[in-house]
Amino acid sequence: MAAKTLTIDDHLVSARPGETLLEAIREAGIVIPTLCHLDGLSDVGACRLCLVEIEGQRRLQPACMTMVSEGMVVRTSTPRLQAYRRQIVELLFAERNHVCAVCVASGNCELQRLAAMVGMDHVRYDYLSPDCSVDISHPRFGIDHNRCVLCTRCVRACDEIEGVHTWDVAGRGVQARVITDMNQPWGTSTTCTSCGKCQLACPTGAIFPRGVTVGERPHASERIALIIEARKQRW
Amino acid sequence: MGQRILIDPVTRIEGHAKISIHLDEAGNVAETRFHVTEFRGFERFCVGRPFWEMPGITARICGICPVSHLLASARAGDGILAVIIPPAAEKLRRLMNLGQIIQSHALSFFHLSGPDLMLGFDSDPAQRNIFGLIAADPELARNGIRLRQFGQEVIELLGGRKIHPAWAVPGGVRSGLSERSRDHIRAKLPDMLTIACQALGRLKQLGETYQREIETFGVFPSLYLGMVGPGGRWMHYGGKLRVIDHRGNILVDELDPIDYCDVIGEAAEPWSYLKFPYIRALGYPQGMYRVGPLARINICTTMGAPRADAELQELRQAVGPVIEGSFYYHHARLIEIIAALERMEVLLEDDDLLSSDLRADAGVNRHEAVGVSEAPRGTLFHHYRVDEKGLITHVNLIIATGQNNLAINRTVAQIAQSYIQNGRFDEGILNRIEAGVRAYDPCLSCSTHAVGQMAMEVELYDARGELVGRLCR
User: Fold this and answer.
1) A-B contacts at Cβ under 8 angstroms
2) Per-domain residue ranges for chain B?
3) In order of start, what are the domains of chain A with their CATH numbers?
4) Minimal Cα–Cα distance from B16 to chain A, Å?
5) ipTM, interface predicted TM-score of the complex
6) pLDDT tens-digit readout, A143-178
7) Cα-to-chain-centroid distance, residue B109
8) Is the pTM of this model over 0.80?
9) Are B390 and A136 within 8 A, CB to CB?
């Protein structure tokens, strides 16, 4: 199939057919923020950080869920997009209790990096300060809902790579929570294989190895893509 | 007609406070109160957190003595894991606490109280600060800043940062000491010791100038509580608790921190956010006790460091076996800096310090633990209960300044009664009242577990309760 030619930020770019706009943008060396996307996992377009402007389309489109097409003219960083991205990150911070100073992922956190990237120097919304629980019933890992951004990367890593689907999402809106099995303590899950891929996939400090202290949880989400690559070569 | 004087805010202390002084019809002091006006709530919002995170969270209580919270919390964590931490970790924690004592005491003496002591209590308030001190005595001010910098540097070399290093953890510490860092600290010790000894020399010379202050700043019998090591040696980390009375009789000794509740009770008053701990055996408020540098040099048999010991003996011979006046907190602070530097010198000889075996690992083996460290301002208690998985279910923090609360209130009353007569007072007198508080180097951010810049006010009320005088900064 012939390559597609499109214009991204005034540059002509060629992309493979079937490629997402996000892939084409990245191959062109342009950086745009993402959160729910993780290389190797399916995309869900949930976080809305990779929204781009496409000429001829009234609505903004998430780059991770949009396929490239011939003649597309795309803008990735207009003032409108920048304002929305900052707003989205602020809303993420306002929704749960993200306290970087005492967080296990501080310095290794995608949300923290995003805040710096979009220039978030303060949050303009009232914090909801919800009363969220921490579950450290699993012998090796813990889940702190205070720090969860509902990106569902854990859900997809567990389902698509480990294949056990221990994680899922329950509730709606601000009540939504990631859950294990039938919304029971993680330590009582009968499906969890303790493989730790959810922890690798987690962009923040929400899922963490038990016993870590401030800033000690490493960020290793790229290992998900490595695992997939390694499996392809073996099988 | 009586009056009420308000000093609001009290300056050059850590946190927010005000002092109100009520005068009777004749204009003499009827009642004084030292109000702490901050509220925080760490004891509540830490509930539900994994206990491993507690050192990092509680260190944020204070920017001046985060190390004290870090160590008390990590020690409580050791108790929950029920482990004996590696010797290197134990010794490195001690080293960091010595650095902390040096930097905090230097801050209190040179930056906060230095302007009163060196420039005079009645000197121009516009100049009576660290900048005035730099102008008047650049050498002394520079030395003070260098001494504080040294203490901070020790903390940074160990924990990676000067303030809020998340370094001590349940089971040990996160990183060790390099040979280079050790040599760097060691090379600076002689200069620092000279600075501390010179400062103490200067303070001793001021004895005659401040005779009246020495006699009126918190001179009353009280109990003293603190930590001592084997043989009653001066100790700041890992020791047992001792309580003595004003005659030097040992009332409680070899008390394991886990049993602190048997000895210490906590009372509350509606006019202050700061609790009032007391010794249970004597009841409230008779069980008033003091903690901090003065208490530590009173309860210890020896400083365990030759130069500091010589200074302590000299002071005891001049004042008595139990040193009662709060003015002597300044002397005690400098003696402790000397002791800390001497102890550091000995500690740095220990090759264990360079070990890479730094962290013991375990699960939740106990559901309750108490961690105690001697903060620069006094004994600090962290008491945690956890559920079977390690989530915090109960937190009680007893902070040094809280334990001095009764004594600070009494000191304010004593100074006010001594200086304010017939309703007459001036700025210099109100500054003395503040300085009486400052002698304890209170940290109200810690003691109420609150945030904000230190500010304090003094209010003067008449007999009908109307505000007639106010000193506010």
Assistant:
1) 39
2) 1-38+426-473, 221-324
3) 4-77 (3.10.20.740), 84-234 (3.30.70.20)
4) 23
5) 0.89
6) 999 999 999 999 999 999 999 999 999 999 999 999
7) 12
8) yes
9) yes
